[in-house]
Amino acid sequence: MNIESLIILLYVLVLASYLGFELIAKVPPTLHTPLMSGSNAISGITIVGALLACNELGYTTLSKWLGMLALVLAVINVVGGYAVTDRMLKMFKKK
Amino acid sequence: MILIQVLYLIASVLFIIGIKMMNKTKEARSGNLVSSVGMLIAIIATLLQINIVSITEILACMAIGSAIGLYYAYKVEMTKIPEMVSLFNGFGGIASVAVAASDFWLKTNVNMVQMGIIITISIILSVFIGAITFTGSMVAFLKLNGKITGNPITFKGQHLINLILLLVFIGASVFAVANQLDTSIIIVLTAISLLLGVLTVLPIGGADMPVVISLLNSYSGMAACATGFILNNNVLIVAGSLVGASGIILTQIMCKAMNRSLINVLLGGFGQTITKVEADGPEIIVKEVGVEEAAMLFDGASSVIVVPGYGMAVAQAQHVVRELYELCEKRNIEFKFAIHPVAGRMPGHMNVLLAEANIPYDKLIEMEQINDEFSNTDLVFVVGANDVVNPAAQTNPKSPIYGMPILNASKARTVIVSKRSMGKGYAGVENELFGYPNCLMLFGDAKQTIAKLVMELKEL
Q1: B387 is catalytic
Q2: CB contact set of B137 (below 8 Å; sequence gap of 6+)
Q3: What is the pTM of this model?
Q4: Dihedral sign from CA coordinates of B320, B321, B324, B325
Q5: Do B69 and A89 lie within an 8 Å CB cutoff?
Q6: ipTM entry
């Protein structure tokens, strides 16, 4: 990776973090648990890395095995996280 | 391919919109859906880059993961949500470590390419944050489900050991950056990080878990960010930093609600040393109340505020509380819930439990909004909460919880406290409220006593 692409990634990091702070500070306390499990599901975005790591031919390299391990765990994180968040939010009702 | 990049961009935007929609209770469920569509798009965009021969095992892995995730998500009881969030969080963390290790192995042992400094640092960070997230979350998970004690586990030289481990980690990292990251170094780095995760969460007690879970949540986002730097991929950085920011904000809110600094929470051992000092204070004499009398107090009240705490979750009492609420509503008794920010084991824990019990969320009032109402309230019913209603936080500068914002339950005309026994709260201090003239203790398992209370009230 060259320094130019690093700078671009850092820009993205700074701006997205700032945006995150702005958006999440407004979430009402009632929703803090769903927010946390929902954002937990988002952190499963590592799934992208896991998929790429699986993209190795043959089963011989350690890379592929690690990728598959990462994939299973990331999928649990993503699918379970979104499902349980939905289950929780479904229960929030106004009178 | 431009299409893939565009799809990643769309996914990032959907994550942002999804989080934004979490700001409103009405839109939150759709927001979660939007965010999950974003994830789906990111997955599809990635699958487009995958060689077709790998697709079978990839789909197999995804099927296994989905099945486990869905099974757990639909099976878990709402009282156990903090445990589940910790567990999933840990999985996210170890996935980042595995991705980083996989990329490292591919570059050094398969493709034999030189890794630049940027990639090396990114891999080290991903391993460090991911591994701490993993073992830290696992310890939190075990503490929450009682497999290991919820009390702080402390030993001599604990902080020194952590410091030494951290210094060794930094030293090895600097060496790796200056020379070459090789397999033995990365194993050492991973081992140290895993150990640090365990050692940093062990000394933290159960009631400080809201802070720990929030912080670990933030770490899992940061780990995803670091992975984004390894792979030069923006969607990981956007999603990771949103999660990182979310975790940090929740951590701050939790610390503020306990009037403690993050450092103080992380150093752990809270409530252990202070107990001895406090034990010398005057003994608190409490007045007991029976179920019949308590029912009569409810019957005579025109306004009731319930203060739920972790004890309500432990006793699974949220459904009988709902019955009590319905009964009072029928009798035109004004009925509200006062929610302290750190009640329970994770931010918003009480809200989820009460929502599960079908209590409308507009009946759940935050501390700042409801604190002035206590003085005009006939009856406060404390269910499984302790430190968050202890007036010592306002009146006794020697108390370890002094300065912590509390619910002014003691200001009500009568306070009934449902409590299993006279045990102390998490902070290990006597609750002065229990000795107040307007306070009555209703001893016994919350679920059983409240069920009896409901029966009595029905007959009145």
Answers
A1: yes
A2: B86, B87, B89, B90, B93, B197, B216, B220
A3: 0.92
A4: negative
A5: no
A6: 0.96
